């Protein structure tokens, strides 16, 4: 199993400095390595459209801001740091789960859109997608807190990728529950915290409501909800639901992450497992065990 962090620095710099008419084509070429991420889509997707939907950098404005941000990432050694963190995290995970198998993984690290307030303010400049086996997409704006957490962001998504790899937990869009998504986020955070500590390891949007009993109870009330169109509201919160055309349910941003951390922490404490050992833990068992032990 090999993890490859694609050198997107050169490609992004070329795109941002190219004549406007050439940028979309260059962007599409840069995104080609993750085309397989969308293999389960009911219709063929346009990679550039998906880039825009996932907060990717614009090709028609903010060139100077984006070029400066790109250099900040380069100066921080972002690509090498992510590669090293992913390789080390994979070794930890393989040591914890005997016979762990997964496809090779392609990682695309992309600059985000500084003009998108939902991206910069609501989700704090970080968006990750790691649930489709073999592919990880990370979109980020180099706020100091995000630069500090580059490794954490990468290994969080790796945990998702390995959990849902063939032979692991099956994500069936027809039957998967909010509970699986919430537990998945909690496990990914717990794995990052195992490697990098609690101060860095938690996803930032989940920290504010970690000890909010009302938010926790609300998320728990929705754990049996099915239908992936509902997941944004229950996991990411009302602002995310509104952004993507889903029905809000009365939750703040990151509610599912905070609840997932609590559920997984209680489960790990009760079972004595590490986060790495619990990679394939059944979400229903995690939830039941955690609630019995006062999550």
Automatic annotation (TrEMBL):
Pfam families: DUF2268. This is Uncharacterized protein YjaZ. It comes from Nocardiopsis composta. InterPro entries: DUF2268. Residues 95-287 form the DUF2268 domain. It comes from the Bacteria.
């Amino acid at each position: 199993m090999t993890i490859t962090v694609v050198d997107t620095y050169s490609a992004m710099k070329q795109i941002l400095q190219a004549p406007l008419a050439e940028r979309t084509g260059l962007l599409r070429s840069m995104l080609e390595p993750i085309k397989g991420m969308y293999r389960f889509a009911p219709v063929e997707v346009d990679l550039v459209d998906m880039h825009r939907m996932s907060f990717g950098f614009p090709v028609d404005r903010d060139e100077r801001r984006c070029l400066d941000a790109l250099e900040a990432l380069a100066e921080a050694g972002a690509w090498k740091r992510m590669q090293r963190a992913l390789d080390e995290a994979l070794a930890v995970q393989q040591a914890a789960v005997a016979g762990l198998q997964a496809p090779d993984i392609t990682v695309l690290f992309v600059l985000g859109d500084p003009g998108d307030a939902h991206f910069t303010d609501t989700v704090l400049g970080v968006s990750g997608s790691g649930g489709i086996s073999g592919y990880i997409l990370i979109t980020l704006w180099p706020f100091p807190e995000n630069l500090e957490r580059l490794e954490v962001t990468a290994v969080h998504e790796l945990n998702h990728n390995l959990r849902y790899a063939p032979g692991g937990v099956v994500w069936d869009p027809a039957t998967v529950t909010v509970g699986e998504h919430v537990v998945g986020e909690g496990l990914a955070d717990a794995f990052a915290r195992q490697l990098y500590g609690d101060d860095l390891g938690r996803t930032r949007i989940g920290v504010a409501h970690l000890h909010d009993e009302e938010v926790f109870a609300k998320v728990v009330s929705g754990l049996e909800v099915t239908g992936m169109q509902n997941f944004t509201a229950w996991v990411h919160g009302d602002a995310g639901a509104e952004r993507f055309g889903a029905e809000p349910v009365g939750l703040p941003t990151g509610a599912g992450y905070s609840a997932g951390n609590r559920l997984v922490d209680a489960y790990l404490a009760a079972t004595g497992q590490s986060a790495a050992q619990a990679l394939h833990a059944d979400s229903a068992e995690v939830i039941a065990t955690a609630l019995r032990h006062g999550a």
